[in-house]
Design a protein that fits this description.
Elements: E1 14-20, E2 25-33, E3 39-40, E4 43-46, H1 51-71, E5 77-84, H2 87-90, H3 93-104, E6 110-111, H4 120-129, H5 147-166, E7 175-179, H6 185-195, E8 198-202, H7 206-215, E9 220-221, H8 225-229, E10 236-239, H9 248-253, E11 258-259, H10 272-278, E12 282-283, H11 286-289, H12 292-300, H13 306-314, H14 316-330, H15 334-349
Parallel strand pairs: 3-5, 3-6, 4-5, 7-8, 7-10, 8-9, 10-11, 11-12
Antiparallel strand pairs: 1-2, 2-5
Protein name: Valine dehydrogenase
GO molecular function: nucleotide binding; valine dehydrogenase (NAD+) activity
Family: Belongs to the Glu/Leu/Phe/Val dehydrogenases family.
Length: 350
């Protein structure tokens, strides 16, 4: 476990391994930084291949939350939790309550919320045991589904990308391909259609595609992600499923001029951001543009006000533009410029 303290892992402040035999809970809570305030980040429930994979994911996601929260202008550091197992088989009120007790034992150093595999109703259960829980239902004093503002923020990032590349903050007349039309992606479809974009979608779950087609018959469906990234005339590619979407093969095949999506940790390995830049692809850093959800759950801690949270999420457009400008000034890819801005904010706070 000594590698946890290695700077290459991000220098996390605290990592907690949680186990409750009665409910089958096995979880990792990772706190990367509390320089800006209590660590805030969601709980992912996923069938990891190994405990090592779960730990690595928690560490990467927690570090990403530090950077995301810093650039979203929040008074929060970064943390993340992962629950190991298939939620369809393992999730129970007993397990979620046990998890809530572990989060509560940290005394507010970590504030949790929804992520892949967890939902508003799950956070309501966790909140019975832990007051440091956001993403709850409106009936329980929460803000409800954070994917609404996540999608809105990604759309603001796309508008910034369009302004930087094409001179106007609109996607009107552009072809936008969305990989993953689940919780966030289907809201993003609506923003783009309202703005006058042509939208193409794909998803591994047929029911997700059907839901979009039923609501918006004008949307085109593509067989899979591989076909989507190779589509001729694509202007924007939006990865909105799991991480690692931008690997060597995908970057080499991309036809789009812009990559801007909701998925976390899109760069499969270091160096991908330079490959994108070398190919003339404008990459809107994922943790900058997908911060709408964390802006929403952070606002919930103050007594949720949707208008206030949406106004803060609107600022994602300006932040993204500032990152593009800094990237050009420093002669680095936008992902590097974003990291520098975030690190600067954390260092100043620290």
């Amino acid at each position: 476990m000594h590698t946890l303290f290695h700077s290459a892992q991000g220098g996390h402040e605290q990592v907690v391994l949680c186990q409750d035999r009665a409910s089958g809970l096995r979880a990792v809570i990772a706190i990367h930084s509390s320089a800006l305030g209590p660590a805030l980040g969601g709980t992912r429930f996923h069938a990891y291949a190994s405990e090592e994979d779960a730990l690595e994911d928690a560490l990467n996601l927690a570090r990403g939350m530090s950077y995301k929260n810093a650039l979203a202008g929040l008074a929060h550091g970064g943390g993340k939790a992962v629950i190991i197992g298939d939620p369809a088989e393992l999730k129970s009120e007993e397990l979620l309550a046990a998890y809530g007790r572990f989060v509560a034992s940290l005394g507010g150093r970590y504030v949790t919320a929804c992520d892949v595999g967890t939902y508003v109703q799950d956070m309501d259960v966790v909140a019975r045991e832990c007051r440091w829980t956001t993403g709850r239902s409106p009936a329980n004093g929460g803000a409800g589904d954070s994917s609404v503002l996540t999608a809105f923020g990604v759309f603001q990032g796309m508008r910034a990308s369009a302004e930087h590349l094409w001179g106007k903050p609109t996607l009107r007349g552009r072809r936008v391909g969305i990989a993953g039309v689940g919780k966030v992606g289907h809201h993003l479809v609506e923003h783009l259609l309202e703005d006058g974009a042509e939208v193409l979608v794909t998803d591994v779950r047929p029911e997700s595609v059907e839901r979009v087609r039923a609501a918006h018959p004008e949307v085109s469906v593509v067989a899979d992600t591989d076909a989507l990234v190779r589509t001729d005339g694509l202007d924007v590619y939006a990865p909105c499923a799991l991480g690692g979407a931008l690997d060597d093969a995908t970057v080499a095949a991309l036809t789009a001029r812009v990559v801007c999506g909701a998925a976390n940790n899109q760069l499969a390995h270091p160096g991908v951001e330079k490959d994108l830049a070398d190919r003339g692809v404008l990459y809107a850093p994922d943790y900058v543009v997908n911060a709408g959800g964390v802006i929403q759950v952070a606002d919930e801690l103050r007594g949720f006000d949707f208008a206030r949270a949406k106004a803060k999420a609107t600022q994602i457009q300006d932040t993204t533009l500032a990152i593009f400008r800094r990237a050009e000034a420093d002669g680095v890819p936008p992902a590097v410029a974003a990291d520098r801005l975030a690190e600067q904010r954390m260092a100043e706070a620290g």
